[in-house]
Structures are given as structure tokens and as C-alpha cells.
Amino acid sequence: MTFPPKMGSDILRLDLQTGQASVFMSTPFNETHPVPSPDGRWLAYTSNESGRDEIYVQSLLDDGGKWQISTDGGSRPAWTRGGREIIYQGADRKLVAVDIRLEPMFQAGTPNPLFDPRARVQNLQAWDVSADGERFLVNRAIETRGVEPITLVQNWPATLKK
Fold it and tell me: What global pTM score does this model have?
């Protein structure tokens, strides 16, 4: 397979029946972190087409529908079960939730900040959300409390004789 020369990252589609890959999205921008919806009809992904990373959803069918989900930057989207919600990491590194309606037509709600996961690794997917959207798993450093001082008594048998 030959790809046209360009500057951005593209999203490919792999046909599991034939093993053939084809270009799904090719633009001068970077499209990364593609995640299909649970029903396989939609693709959430990160793109910098607006000048900064934002979350978009595009139809995987040929109807060409496309929506920007994030409003203040975002990356690394994840769908919850049934496609009712998209969780992503905002530009400020906080996790953000957006309610999604897939029927009768695609609609996205207002982004709602959740919490700062204080993830250990900032440039990788260091978190995941449960299918029901109620629990999160975050790779983060263990917080250490102040260390208690240790008292070392040497030659303690001599002390017992006194």
C-alpha cells in the first residue's frame, strides 16, 4: 500500500476479512487516538485541525457526518457502554465527560469537567474508564507520607545490665 506524502498523521481502516488496509481519513492535520463507538457506527478521535488538539466524532458510514465534541482542547477519547458518553483528557489534563445521543441522530452535550487524574505518564493513555462510566483506573505515582524517624539503639544488652 502506498500513501500520499503529507505532513499529518492519518487514520487507516483495516478490513478484517481481507486483511487490506485503506485510508479512512487523510488531511494535512494530525488525526490520532481513534476509538470506534460500541455500536461500530462512529469514530471518536483527536485532531489538531482547529490549531490545537480537540475531540471529534465522525460517522464510519458514508454519510459524512462530523462533530467537534471538545470546546477547550482535548485528547485521548474513550466511549462508555452503549455510546452514551465520551470521556477525554482536556488540555488542562483533567478528565471531561460529554453526554452523547446516537438516536435518532447524533447529538453531543456540553463538556463537563470531572477530576484531575494526576496521571503518572502524561504522554500516554494513563487512564481508562469502566464501560458504565462510573469508575476510572489511573496510572499514578504513589503518594508517600512523611517518613517516621527510626531510633537505633546500639549495644542494648549493656543497657539491660545496668
Answer: 0.77
